[in-house]
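Hello,

Our lab assistant flagged a job as stuck in the queue for most of the afternoon. It eventually completed. Since we weren't sure the result was trustworthy after the delay, we are filing this so someone can double-check. Below is the sequence as submitted and the structure that was eventually returned. Let us know if re-running is recommended.
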Amino acid sequence: MDIVLDYSEEFFFKPYIYPETWRQDDPLRQLINLYVVTNIGGALLYLSCATASFYLLFDHQLMKHPLFIKDQVKLEIQYTLKSVPWISIPTVALFFLEVRGHSKLYDEVERSPLGWMKELANFVFFVFFTDMLIYWIHRFLHHRTIYKHFHKPHHIWKVPSPFASHAFHPVDGFLQSAPYHIFVFLFPLHKVTYLGLYVIVNVWSTSIHDGLFLVPKVLQPVINGAANHTVHHLYFDYNYGQYFTLWDRIGGSYLDPSTKLLEENDASWKNKLN
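-- returned structure --
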């Protein structure tokens, strides 16, 4: 995150906001900058991804579904934008530790004898590692003593639009994002790879809420796409995974959307799965 922080300092905070006497590496200044950048950047990334998905990919016929509530898109956006400033507080604390050099992020590919091949391996490991943690965190959030307090707001949207992708209670939103931050305190990762993954994660989160069942048939048993996540929103106790079906199969929570959704007497799903 120090890459983003440096750019924001050079082109905005330093020339327009702060006096020259305030050191750029002052901890309070860095915390303020990180909070501003995280909120604005997070909101812009969410709105751009969700808007593009909504107008280019989302099946607008789903808005006629009886479970699609009145003014749902507006409510999803409002809920998200109210939650982001609160989710940002613990997130900024972790970004601050990264910026102060307490993570295993690095900026020289030359340190590795495998160069960018190692970064590709790190990318794959990151996806599998975070998928495992998110599965168990997500499943924990469905426990009856926890669910109603933190995760239930996300399930208001039984037939979600892309704008529901980040519509979480702040505690829920932070807990499900925590694995991405935990990773860089445990394992080495290039700073550019980390930023790229940050964007990819947000794009993926949007895509599994777009109602567009595009995963190729050969990959459907493996990939936790929009069809799987639609089942999760409709039936709650299945398909907790983020990217893959692996941990749902291990944990006994996998439900095949091609059979479950076809049981519904609803053309909304049948047309997509056939």
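-- support follow-up --
The delay was a queue issue, not a problem with the job. The result is valid. The beta strands are 105-106, 189-190. The chain has a mean pLDDT of 89.
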